[in-house]
Amino acid sequence: KWLDTSNVTTMSSTFFYARYVPSIDVSTWQTPKLANMNGTFSDMNNIQELDLSSFDFSLVTYSSSSFRNNPKLKTIYVGNQAVKTFVENILGAGAGSTTGVSVIIK
User: Which one, of 71, 67, 69, lies nearest residue 103 by Cα?
Assistant: First the structure.
């Protein structure tokens, strides 16, 4: 099933506190207009990897706590170096129990 996310500007808290969700497939989401992703993937206690390789974060201005408190999260896949740097900066800016995450260009 395909979800059209091409006009979405806010994903704030979309998956916040989805504690029992072991995985999500957002690998095909197109986000060229995304501006707010505060807490989008925050407090997902069982998530182990995220494939954000199709995400465009170039317009994002609000991103605090986007990956906060995900103790099992080990890998985030991204589409390019700019997104890798962006995600690494979010992780380094206070991700709570989210530590030791590899950000890999896919």
Answer: 67
List Cα–Cα distances, 42 to 11, 65, 80, 96, in angstroms: 12, 6, 22, 10
Q: What is the pLDDT of residue 2?
A: 73
Q: In the beta sheet, which residues pair with residue 104?
A: 77
CB neighbours of residue 37 within 10 Å: 26
Number of Cα atoms under 13 Å in the Cβ half of residue 68 = 16
Query: pLDDT tens digits for 31-89?
Result: 999 999 999 999 999 999 999 999 999 999 999 889 999 999 999 999 999 999 999 98
- Residue 17 in tokens: 């506190």
Q: What's the token pair of residue 14?
A: 């979309």
DSSP per-residue codes, 44-73: -TT--EEEETT---TT--B-TTTT-S-TT-
**pLDDT of amino acid 95:** 62
